[in-house]
Inverse folding.
């Protein structure tokens, strides 16, 4: 059987196609930087780093990273477990956060620093959690506070013998800024804040009850 030669334009096309061999997908360069031996996609790495850097990942604030987390939750959990860190994903609230693994049976190196809230921050949290619980109990889908009302309430918990009002107000304002940074508050307009569901994670209803009881006893002793 005789062979028929391909037309000139077809031969040219074949030669051009064969000049640069197509690279199989599995052989594509995957390094993100020189010497990179990581196996995660760049978007997954960014989510992993964010989880390590910040206390929380909010679906509402970072929807793209939230989707990446859900799509790659198993591998991200595995990488965190390698560091003795547990991942908690609250689908109902749209919140993801990490917890330090602690064990009585195993010596666990501590990676996460426990950075407790100071007095003013705790008092602001108590008020925010109380307002959030009240509004949700009334059927509201969101809860908001004004900085003036917040300051007036929290100041009642301060030492009545401390007459440096300006200093106390600065403490409260600094506390509010930390809670904004951590995502517990979102400033919607000047001095007007929306309380996010994170407040339920940070301050459980049991802990809120304990703190309220302590504040009532303290105020009663001071009166």
């Amino acid at each position: 059987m005789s062979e028929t030669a391909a037309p000139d334009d077809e031969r040219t096309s074949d030669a051009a196609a064969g000049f640069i061999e197509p690279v199989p997908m599995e052989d594509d360069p995957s390094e993100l930087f020189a010497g990179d031996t990581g196996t995660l996609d760049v978007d997954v790495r960014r989510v992993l780093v964010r989880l390590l850097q910040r206390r929380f990942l909010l679906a509402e604030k970072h929807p793209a990273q939230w989707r990446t987390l859900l799509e790659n939750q198993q591998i991200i959990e595995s990488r965190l477990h390698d560091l003795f860190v547990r991942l908690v994903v609250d689908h109902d609230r749209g919140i993801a956060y990490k917890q330090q693994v602690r064990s009585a049976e195993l010596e666990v190196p501590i990676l996460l620093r426990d950075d407790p809230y100071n007095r003013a921050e705790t008092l602001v949290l108590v008020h925010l959690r109380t307002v959030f619980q009240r509004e949700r109990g009334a059927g509201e889908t969101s809860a908001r506070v004004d900085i003036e009302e917040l300051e007036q309430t929290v100041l009642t918990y301060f030492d009545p013998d401390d007459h440096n009002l300006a200093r106390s107000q600065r403490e409260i304002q600094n506390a509010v800024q930390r809670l904004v940074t951590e995502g517990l508050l979102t400033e919607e307009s000047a001095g007007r804040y929306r309380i996010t569901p994170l407040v339920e994670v940070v301050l459980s209803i049991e802990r809120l009850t304990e703190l309220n009881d302590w504040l009532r006893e303290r105020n009663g002793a001071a009166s």
